[in-house]
Specification:
Blueprint: E1 5-9, E2 23-27, E3 30-34, E4 38-42, H1 47-61, E5 65-74, E6 84-85, E7 89-92, E8 98-100, E9 109-112, H2 119-129, E10 133-135, H3 138-148, E11 152-160, H4 181-188, H5 192-223
Helix pairs in contact: 1-3
Domain Nucleoside phosphorylase: 4-95, 108-164
Protein name: Purine and other phosphorylase, family 1
Pfam family, one: PNP_UDP_1
Length: 235
């Protein structure tokens, strides 16, 4: 019998409509949402938190596959808010290591970076990796899937276009992957230049979340068609 699809996301708002009505469990310092076919874990922002949450999911679930789901920033001008990518290649920017997914669609390449990318950094990443989008978690999930012999997928929705004037968000993300919204809000009060982009990012993120959740609902049954029995991560 196939195990459940194990989905790793950074933030709950990315999958809010998907997990509505699912069973919520707080365990091992992580939040899980469970349905009959799938389980979602909220890992926090970044490659390391995503990898750690993936290891926990494998030990807890013996899943059919691992999926990295969430938001991404466009590196191509034709990608618009809410567009969904199911890439075939994931690149860890820090190490240059490449991972291959079992993408059922046209493929493409995304890069997992170490920080939230602004306009200049997006241009650099596009030139260096010829990639379609930038996010921060997929390489972490892919590394655990690879070490466990599990099928891996990534499903990402564009939340900021290539020329979006991203506010300086990185200083509000701690080493554990938590975004400190209260601290950001306090600083935002005294930064009028951030107000417009922050409102736009909230609108864009809502649209991206809706499209991401539709895509995940569509793919969960397809992703679940793998035999159960993943290897445990090597210590």
């Amino acid at each position: 019998m196939a195990g459940r699809v194990a989905i790793v996301c950074a933030m709950r708002q990315e999958v809010k409509s998907l997990v509505r009505g699912w069973r919520k469990v707080r365990e091992r310092g992580l939040t899980f949402f469970e349905s009959e076919r799938a389980v979602v874990v909220v890992a926090g922002i970044g490659t390391a938190p995503a990898a750690m949450a993936s290891m926990t999911l494998v030990a807890r679930e013996q899943p059919s596959c691992l999926v990295s789901a969430g938001f991404a920033g466009a590196l191509r001008r034709d990608l618009k808010i809410g567009d969904v990518l199911v890439p075939s290649t994931i690149v860890n920017v820090a190490t240059g290591k490449r991972f291959t997914s079992q993408s059922p669609e046209s493929g493409g390449t995304i890069v997992s970076g170490r920080s939230i990318a602004g306009e200049d950094r997006k241009r650099e990443l596009r030139e260096e990796f010829v990639a379609d989008a930038i996010e921060m978690e997929a390489a972490g999930v892919a590394s655990i899937a690879d070490s466990c012999g599990l099928p891996f997928y990534a499903v990402k929705a564009i939340s900021d276009e290539v020329d979006f004037p991203m506010p300086p968000m990185n200083e509000f993300v701690d080493t554990g992957g938590t975004f400190h919204a209260v601290k950001f809000g306090a600083k935002l009060l005294f930064r009028p230049s951030w107000w417009g982009p922050t409102r736009a990012l909230a609108r864009n993120s809502h649209k991206a979340s809706m499209e991401l959740c539709k895509a995940l609902e569509h793919h969960i049954e397809q992703f679940s068609n793998h035999e159960q029995g993943a290897l445990k991560p090597q210590s």
